[in-house]
Amino acid sequence: MGRVISEVVNAEWIDIVDDKNKVIAQATRQQMRAENLCHRAAYIIVHDGMGKILIQRRTEMKDIYPGLLDATAGGVVTSGEGMLAAARREAEEELGIADVPFAEHGLFYYETTQCRVWGGLFSCVSHGPFALQEAEVESVFWLTPDEINARRHEFTPDSLKALSLWLTRNNNESHKTKLCQKVD
Q1: Across the chain, where does the E strand assignment appear?
Q2: What pTM does this model have?
Q3: pLDDT, tens digit, for every residue of 113-168?
Q4: 181 beta partners
Q5: Residue 129 preceded by cis peptide, ω within 30
Q6: 69-70/116-125 β-pairing
């Protein structure tokens, strides 16, 4: 019994949201994943300001899309946390990025059989050096949107959606690549 109480107390709590992004409940991260509950996540496009996007190779320990490439930094927003605060926290935890301006690019909804999420889309410019979170990020490297599109089958589908929206919302003339998304 003591172990169960300890696990609940130490659990990461997530706000569960409805189809309008309104908080309707809280659940543990484990329960959210197991039941595919709709939640919030921050997505950060880290770019060099000259057309390249920082790509992460996810570790095999990740609870969703292990080992795939990710076109965004970011992660699940914890209960009561704001999207921008979550974006800043995740960028610092995953990559060691701190004290840089973040641009906000609005919200989007993404749904597959594995994931239902309201995403807050952000971007920042950074050239490193990067301090990788070993439990989540295996490695990082730079790619152009065209190079990402050529390797799209290696990427998490939600990060491709976020990147595609960022390119569209920024009216990025130099990279009009339409990123095709794989389906579950």
Answers
A1: 13-17, 23-28, 39-47, 53-58, 69-70, 73-76, 103-111, 116-125, 137-143
A2: 0.89
A3: 989 999 999 999 999 999 999 999 999 999 999 999 999 999 999 999 999 999 99
A4: none
A5: yes
A6: unpaired
